[in-house]
Amino acid sequence: MALVFVQFRCTPGKTYEVANAIWDLEVVSELYSTSGEWDLIAKVYIPEDQDIGQYLASKLFIVPHVSQTLTTMTFKAF
């Protein structure tokens, strides 16, 4: 499995609605609200046989009221 972190910037006033919609999709393993530029951050495990971009686009980036996302891919360091 590949592990990615996805940060979300939400339409003002819609962060809780977006968070609930993301959680209801059952795609993320963890979801947090954050301070700073981004409103939410999610930890997502991508199945080995899936294209990461297509998986995220079809399973996660369908949530309304998201104005921008930032995906950070991870690599084994140790």
Automatic annotation (TrEMBL):
Task: Name the source's superkingdom.
Answer: Bacteria
Q: A Pfam family name for this chain?
A: AsnC_trans_reg
**What lineage does UniProt assign to this protein's organism?**
Bacteria, Pseudomonadati, Pseudomonadota, Alphaproteobacteria, Rhodobacterales
Protein name per the record: Lrp/AsnC ligand binding domain-containing protein
Every Transcription regulator AsnC/Lrp ligand binding domain range = 6-76
Please give the InterPro entries that the UniProt record associates with this protein. Dimeric_a/b-barrel (IPR011008), Tscrpt_reg_AsnC/Lrp_C (IPR019887)
Organism name? Pseudogemmobacter lacusdianii
